[in-house]
Amino acid sequence: MALDGAFLHEIAHELSAVLLDSRVDKVFQPSREEIILLMRWRGGSARLLLSAGADSPRIHFTRTAPENPKTPPMFCMLLRKHLGSGRLVEIRQLGMDRILHLIFESVNEMGDLVRLTLAVEIMGRHSNIILVGPDGKIIDSVKRIDMEMSSVRQILPGMGYVLPPPQTGKLSLLENTGEEIAARVENLENTDLAKALMKVIQGVSPVLCREAASYAVRGLDVCSREMDPEQRRRLAEYLDYLSAVLKDHTGSPVLLSEPDGRPREFSFVPINQYRGALVSKEYPSYSELLDSFYGDRDLMERMKQRSHDLLRLLANASDRVSRKIEAQREQLADCAHRDTLRQYGDLINAGLYSMEKGMTELETQNFYDEALPAVTIPLDPRLTPSQNAQKYYAEYRKADTAERMLTGLIVQGEEELAYLDTVFDSLVRATREAELSALRDELTAAGYLKNRGPRNKRPEKLEPLRYRSADGFTILVGRNNVQNDKLTLKDAHNYDIWFHTQKIPGSHTIVVSGGKPVPNSTLEQAAIIAAYNSRARDSALVPVDYTVVKNVKKPQGARPGRVIYSDFETAVVTPDRQLVESLRVE
Asked: CB 3.0 to 4.6 Å from 234: which of 43, 81, 185, 216, for a disulfide?
């Protein structure tokens, strides 16, 4: 669901209640389209997230502290220059549009007190964050829009800031009564009631319009001009209810999720149209709701941007190895007739007495077959019969050698493909820059990346993920192949318990037993953690093998993360995100 003007109205009120008269302490830009302002006031502070991402534009408080790039982007430096220590004096929404203006008082280079506007435009792929000077001209923006990108509205430094084209003719829940809106709906051409409400009301989302329509007609399929007087009365009643909620700020943040926990919709009023098919949960604040709804998606997008080079490298390497294996398998299939070549040589030698140079073929009986069928053997007329036999023997030896070599090469290729698969799995689950750096080091050591040369500073120490079971046992999870090896083969003790998803790329998971018997409840939780930290995170009924560490060995010359194990048992579990996060120890 997209954040609409009505929901933004409630967020603006939430932000104003806390942030007015606060000052900008720090400015961060963790990704290309995200800005975080650390706001401080006497006795408190908060992080304000501004996002212009096409799939997640929004503004709200956030508790997360995403990693920032080593070199701040230019727009981040510009905001630090102009808004550093600036005081937020006003938060203004333009009607019910999805535009919020943050007005700051700041001191310019001449020492004068000026007012700057940070315009947060939440409009899907047209979303933007624009810094406007006291003269109304654009200082800069997260997204620069030139004439080639839009002939309607350009956003470039030095140009005057012009608002997006308004939605003319629409009614507002803050200014019009429910009866007025219902009358306008009835005057439209006959269409779906929810779609008619979208055309008439400013700043409302499809889910809110569907909810109003569902309440008015009690879930029936009724078009805009087909409402009876009672249905029209109920529509006006619900619209007046929404108006009162927005004016008095009496709404409650509600998140609707699928039964498996995936977020689906959010609103500032209860949503009943799904008739219990979705699970409803109230949040203490709108910011906490949006943090929950968008948090994982934003983290994945940030890491995708930062790991783009590694993703491309792994994709190219996997494609190259796959094509090589396919070619080798085709060559191996050609070697399948090698025994026939040897038999031809034997048959020629057996018939040398009846052959002479210049023959193009030999017709004889195949004594390798009990039925003694006739067989025709092609001959090279330039060679003697003995030389023809030796030629077939040479081709047999070549095919036999090729088969042995190709079989080994295919096994090596499949192992390399499996290794690249494990690196890719670690990459898609990475949440920190340090994890990406460790993966780059691993790929450099494996020869997939060129050595980056000496580093200017020591890399951040990367510890395994740490969990604590309900029974108090420590559970450690490797973040990459190199750490998996270290965790399993060096750090763990013989009678600690080792877990790994069966034939699925994932992390090594260790239950630190401390010499004590490990209860079944901890074993089950460790298996769930191992399944969650694998490619099968979103699957159900995942097989997880487990055994004591002394049964886990590393084959000589094996790639990082590759082990073999024996005397194991298998647990079938379903990954549970809420359980895993509740057991996490920071």
From this structure: 216
